[in-house]
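Proteins fold. Shown next:

***
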Amino acid sequence: MVLCQTRLIEMALPPSDYFDAGFPGASLPVRITSLYDAKVFARRWVIRDKDPALKMLLRHLEKANSSATADIAVRQLKQALAHRGMLISANPLLAPAPRSW
């Protein structure tokens, strides 16, 4: 019997890159502070909207294997949220802290 331990390494975003996002009709926004948060939010967004462009964005987030590609993928998520009017706060240091995944 072989025991396998997996370790989750969470890539946190710099404090200036934290942002808040929300779904239309949702009561509370979600603060996205890491690549993991971005992936979870994107997965739920894809399930909700079933948009092929969002599926491609989710794949890009999941394949990010360096800080540079992760930054690009999170920036693309942020742009997609802003384009659809779902980006609540681009400067969260001024906003109260909402819930996190």
